[in-house]
Amino acid sequence: MTESTPQNPLKKGILVYLDKDVYSSSIESLASDEDLPSYVFEGPGEILCVKEEYAQVRWRRPVPDVWFKLDQLKEYIVAE
Description:
The chain is an alpha+beta fold. It has one domain. Helix content is 16%, strand content 30%. The protein has a 5-stranded antiparallel beta sheet with strand order 4-3-2-1-5. The longest helix is centred in the first third of the chain and has 5 residues, at 20-24. The protein is globular, with a radius of gyration of 13 Å.
């Protein structure tokens, strides 16, 4: 019998932001700049590509794209 792995709903084209609590307690935060810019926590950024457990995110600013773990990202909900 094969076990099914839970699918992450985050996929290409979805708008996201970085969850500050999850990110700050991750090992990736230890390897990065201590003061990330506020726009990564406010969003939205767009997922360009998903590979395994990482997503490439493009921000609506003239900055490079960044890879984050999918569990550190939350879907950005546009208020109507």
